[in-house]
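Sequence, please.
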C-alpha cells in the first residue's frame, strides 16, 4: 500500500512538473470534486495515479479528438473503449476526474498558435515512467481538427532525442514513398530552454475488423531500409560495428564491450541501409483511403545498419509485449525469425540487432530515470554474450 501511495505521489508530481513547464506562470494546482467541475483546466485521464493524457476540460470537441487516436497496436477492445471515452468527453459525461488548473498566459499553447498562425488547443500525453519520458502534445484547431503533434524536451537525453528526430525527418526523402507516410517538420526550436519539435498530423483509423497488428509490415520496413540507398560492407569493419564499439568503450559494462569486440571479428559481407529503430505497431497506423501506413517516432532512425533489423525489432516487441520481457521470450522470438532474411545469415543479422539494442539500453539505463530500463539492458547484454559465444 505504501509503495502504491508513493508511486501515485510521484505520478502527480510528474504531472505538475510537466504542466508547469508548458504553462510557466503560476504553479499549476490539482482540483478535485466540486472545484474540479467548476474549473477551467485539464482533465487527467485515466487517473492521477496513472496519468497518460490531459485533455482540455472546456473544449469537449478537442478532448474527444485527442482521445480518438489509434495505432496498429490498438486492439478491438481498446478501440471500442477509446471511442466510448471520446463520446463521453464530447457529451460532457466524464465526471470525478482530477483537473489540473494552469495559468493560460505565456503558455506553450500561445507559442504554438503563433507558430501555426491559428488559434489552437492541445492535449498533453506524458507516457509511462522511463528515462526518455516527455510531453507529447496533440495540436487541435478551432474546427476540432488534429493538425499536428509537438514534442517538448525535459532533460539533456530527451533534448538529444528530439534533435535527432528532427535531423532524421529532415534527412528523409520529401516524396516518392509508395507504402508509408512520415510526418513533416513544421517547426524546430526551443521552449523553456529545451527542444521543441512540431510535426504534421498523420492520418490513422480504428481497426475494428482486424484488431492489433501482429505481422510485420515487411514492405514498409524495406522501403525505410532503402530510402537513402544501400551498400555492401564487411560487418567487422563497418561503420555500424565501429560505432557500437566506440559507444561501448566509454561504458562501465565490460561484458558488453567484450561481446562487441568478438562480434567485430565477423567477416561476413552484408547489405547496409537505414532503419527506423523503433519499428513497432504503436508507432504506425494504416490508412484505408490510399493504403499507406503512417509511421511516427523517428528518434532512433539511423543509416549504415544491416538491413532487416526493423523486422526483428517489430517481432521482438510484439512478442515481449504479449508474453513479457524475459530471456525465454527473447530467444523464442529470435528463433521464429531465423533464416527468414534473404540477404544475411539469420544468426548474424540477429546478433547485429541484439548488439544495437543492448548498447542502446545500457546507455539509457545510465541516464536519470534509467532504472526503468536497467533490467532490460541486463537481459540484452546477457543474450548478446550468449549468442556471441555460439558463433
Amino acid at each position: 500500500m505504501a509503495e502504491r501511495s508513493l508511486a501515485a505521489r510521484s505520478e502527480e508530481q510528474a504531472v505538475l512538473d510537466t504542466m508547469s513547464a508548458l504553462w510557466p506562470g503560476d504553479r499549476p494546482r490539482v482540483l478535485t470534486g466540486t472545484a474540479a467541475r467548476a474549473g477551467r483546466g485539464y482533465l487527467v485521464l485515466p487517473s492521477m495515479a496513472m496519468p497518460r493524457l490531459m485533455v482540455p476540460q472546456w473544449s469537449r470537441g478537442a478532448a474527444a479528438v485527442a482521445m480518438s487516436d489509434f495505432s496498429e497496436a490498438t486492439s478491438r477492445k481498446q478501440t471500442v473503449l477509446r471511442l466510448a471515452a471520446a463520446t463521453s468527453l464530447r457529451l460532457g459525461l466524464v465526471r470525478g476526474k482530477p483537473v489540473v488548473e494552469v495559468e493560460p498566459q505565456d503558455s506553450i499553447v500561445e507559442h504554438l498558435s503563433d507558430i501555426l498562425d491559428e488559434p489552437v488547443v492541445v492535449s498533453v500525453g506524458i507516457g509511462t515512467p522511463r528515462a526518455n519520458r516527455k510531453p507529447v502534445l496533440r495540436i487541435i484547431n478551432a474546427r476540432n481538427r488534429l493538425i499536428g503533434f509537438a514534442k517538448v524536451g525535459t532533460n539533456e537525453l530527451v533534448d538529444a532525442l528530439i534533435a535527432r528526430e528532427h535531423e532524421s525527418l529532415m534527412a528523409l526523402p520529401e516524396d516518392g514513398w509508395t507504402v508509408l507516410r512520415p510526418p513533416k517538420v513544421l517547426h524546430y526550436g526551443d521552449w523553456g530552454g529545451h527542444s521543441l519539435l512540431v510535426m504534421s498530423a498523420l492520418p490513422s483509423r480504428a481497426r475494428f475488423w482486424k484488431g492489433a497488428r501482429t505481422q510485420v509490415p515487411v514492405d514498409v520496413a524495406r522501403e525505410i531500409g532503402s530510402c537513402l540507398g544501400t551498400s555492401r560492407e564487411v560487418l567487422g569493419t563497418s561503420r555500424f560495428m565501429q560505432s557500437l564499439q566506440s559507444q561501448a568503450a566509454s561504458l562501465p559494462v565490460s561484458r558488453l564491450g567484450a561481446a562487441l569486440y568478438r562480434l567485430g571479428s565477423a567477416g561476413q559481407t552484408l547489405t547496409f541501409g537505414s532503419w527506423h529503430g523503433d519499428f513497432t505497431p504503436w508507432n504506425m497506423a494504416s490508412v484505408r483511403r490510399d493504403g499507406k501506413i503512417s509511421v511516427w517516432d523517428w528518434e532512433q532512425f539511423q543509416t549504415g545498419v544491416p538491413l532487416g533489423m526493423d523486422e526483428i525489432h517489430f517481432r521482438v516487441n510484439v512478442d515481449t509485449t504479449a508474453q513479457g520481457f524475459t530471456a525465454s521470450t527473447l530467444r523464442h522470438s529470435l528463433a521464429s525469425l531465423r533464416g527468414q532474411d534473404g540477404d544475411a545469415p539469420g544468426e548474424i543479422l540477429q546478433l547485429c540487432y541484439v548488439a544495437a539494442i543492448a548498447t542502446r539500453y545500457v546507455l539509457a539505463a545510465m541516464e536519470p530515470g534509467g532504472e526503468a530500463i536497467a533490467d532490460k539492458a541486463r537481459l540484452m547484454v546477457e543474450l548478446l554474450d550468449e549468442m556471441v559465444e555460439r558463433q
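Residues 2-22 form the longest helix (21 residues).
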